[in-house]
Amino acid sequence: MKTKAQKTKLAFKKLMTADVVNLGVERPENFTYKTGQFAEFLFLDPKNPKKKTKRAYSICSVSNDKNIEFLIKLVPNGAGSDYIRKLNEGNTVEISGPYGHFILEDKEEPLVFIATGVGVAPIIGLLRESLNNLGYKKDVRLLFGLRGEEDIFLVDHLDELKEKHSNFDYVLTLSRPSDKWTGTKGRVTDYLSKYIDKKAHYYICGNIDMASDTKKTLEDSGIKEENIHFEAF
Ligand SMILES: Cc1cc2nc3c(=O)[nH]c(=O)nc-3n(C[C@H](O)[C@H](O)[C@H](O)COP(=O)(O)OP(=O)(O)OC[C@H]3O[C@@H](n4cnc5c(N)ncnc54)[C@H](O)[C@@H]3O)c2cc1C
Q1: Given 100, 127, 204, 212, which is the most exposed site by the fewest CB atoms within 10 A?
Q2: Would the ipTM clear 0.85, i.e. be above it?
Q3: Signal peptide: which range, if any (predicted)?
Q4: 47 vs 169, higher pLDDT
């Protein structure tokens, strides 16, 4: 149910890489959401401190988790990024939502998730929802793109999911790895052809160029538009 802006507390703040943080806020009692949706944080506008401004962040927790969690990339001189840099556990935060339609379909189909960077935020929720909560038995795949080794996060969690669910597998590919990297290299779009399945539902989340290129490649490969779910930021 959509709620107007309400105040809650920052439950935790954890650094995942040099510029990605995992935030958890206490879930207000009347804030219910579907896994994959996003919320907005409201805070004083640094350009006009008499006014509030807001930033959208995808929820990476699942709807029955105690806290509402986010994975946020801190960009240089970003208003939202600077606000989040200064937040400490126990601080009051103001959020509104939930918003968005990046949610699972009612019917179980094979799932292919494609994410770059913090675009994995809503997708990690959808993975946990489909595998742990709904007990999906059809194939669930994740193609996850990051830049270099220093940007790697969440793989422990993905490995745990893989160990627990034989129908889940993922590939992490680095677009700019060091010479020492022996894993998969290149962009997620380089590997899409291996994941074409006309029955599957595709969930794409990441920067706009990757998301648009991926959507186009899938459509050119005969995937129906209604099977492609798209979030870009
Ligand atoms: C539906 C939706 C869901 C979103 N979910 C998430 C999420 O889960 N996690 C998340 O981190 N963000 C998410 N975003 C993006 C987020 O809302 C902000 O736009 C982003 O964090 C930058 O905000 P900022 O206030 O720090 O920077 P701004 O003050 O908006 O921008 C400051 C400067 O940073 C530059 N900049 C902005 N974004 C980037 C970037 N990614 N890399 C480098 N430079 C940049 C701008 O060009 C500008 O020069 C989402 C956006 C939408 C619309």
Answers
A1: 212
A2: yes
A3: none
A4: 169
